[in-house]
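Researcher: Next entry in the queue.
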Amino acid sequence: MSEPVDVPITGEPIRLGQFLKLAGLAEDGSHAKDLLDAEEVKVNGEIETRRGRQLTDGDIVAVGPDSGKVVLVR
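Model: Structure for this entry, 74 residues:
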């Protein structure tokens, strides 16, 4: 797995489905749902299937070899 790319967000928390799109890990909402249903998404190393999972500063989301890190911008 490559180093996670920092993905700045302005407000916590952000939902996993939104983050996947923002980070470019999913093309759109239905693609995000498909990835989650197929258990291809990991949050902090654990498989996650809930699109509404709340993410906070420092969480790392991975899809295959690509990953993004939630970075809160104050």
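Model: Strands lie at 5-9, 14-15, 41-43, 46-47, 54-55, 60-63, 66-72.
Researcher: Noted, moving on.
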